[in-house]
Specification:
Elements: E1 4-8, H1 13-18, E2 20-22, E3 26-33, E4 39-44, E5 57-64, H2 70-83, E6 86-92, E7 98-99, E8 102-111
Parallel strand pairs: 5-8
Antiparallel strand pairs: 1-8, 2-6, 3-4, 3-6, 4-5, 6-8, 7-8
């Protein structure tokens, strides 16, 4: 049985879907957390898709600890990484909406 879990970032839901684009499903290789920036980084096994051309770093996706629903998205990413399940993320495509030059995750879905 498949279960899809969505964790939505609800800060500005009208803009959320208007300025996001989804990736293909991928496997999370590493989850990194930085105390310096407050960012969480998702490092995929596959090459990350570069959907926001204003973000210069292409090797990982990022979330910030102050994002609404961050703990839920972090938990979902960690669970998927631990169980080697595929995830997909919706990335902000708004100009310069990057975290330390990485593409910003606005929504995450895991297929369990």
């Amino acid at each position: 049985m498949k279960y899809a879990l969505l964790a939505l970032l609800l800060t500005s839901s009208s803009q959320l879907f208007a300025s996001t684009s989804k990736t293909s499903y991928f496997t999370v290789d590493k989850v990194r957390v930085s105390a310096n920036t407050g960012n969480l980084y998702l490092d995929p096994v596959e090459n990350p898709q570069h959907l926001n051309t204003t973000c210069s770093s292409k090797s990982m996706y990022a979330m910030h600890k102050d994002d609404e629903m961050f703990h839920i998205m972090y938990s979902l990413a960690l669970s998927a990484a631990q169980s080697k399940q595929k995830v997909r993320v919706w990335l902000s495509t708004a100009a310069n909406d990057c975290l330390s030059s990485y593409q910003r995750v606005r929504l995450i879905e895991a297929d369990f």
